[in-house]
């Protein structure tokens, strides 16, 4: 996946635990863990906004893009 989630880095920079963030924004710790690991297919803008608000950051601080040949084919592989 060409999208890289840097949420764990931002949590460390802000010295915030996953449990604290999950409680503050109203999602489960397991869903936050899935997001941190990049094992999700999407994230709601409202959730992203809540994370950014709580951590005082921007979406660009949390998400990165690494272009690859796989990205050019799309999800259908064609």
TrEMBL record:
SMART domains: HTH_XRE. PANTHER family: DNA-BINDING PROTEIN, DNA-BINDING PROTEIN-RELATED. InterPro entries: Cro/C1-type_HTH, Lambda_DNA-bd_dom_sf. This is Putative transcriptional regulator. Residues 19-62 form the HTH cro/C1-type domain. Pfam families: HTH_26. SUPFAM superfamilies: lambda repressor-like DNA-binding domains. It comes from Sphingomonas trueperi. GO terms for molecular function: DNA binding.
């Amino acid at each position: 996946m060409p999208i890289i989630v840097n949420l764990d880095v931002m949590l460390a920079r802000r010295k915030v635990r996953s449990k604290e963030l999950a409680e503050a924004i109203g999602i489960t710790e397991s869903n936050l863990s899935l997001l941190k690991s990049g094992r999700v297919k999407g994230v709601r803008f409202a959730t992203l906004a809540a994370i950014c608000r709580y951590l005082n950051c921007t979406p660009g601080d949390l998400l990165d893009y690494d272009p690859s040949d796989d990205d050019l084919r799309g999800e259908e592989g064609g």
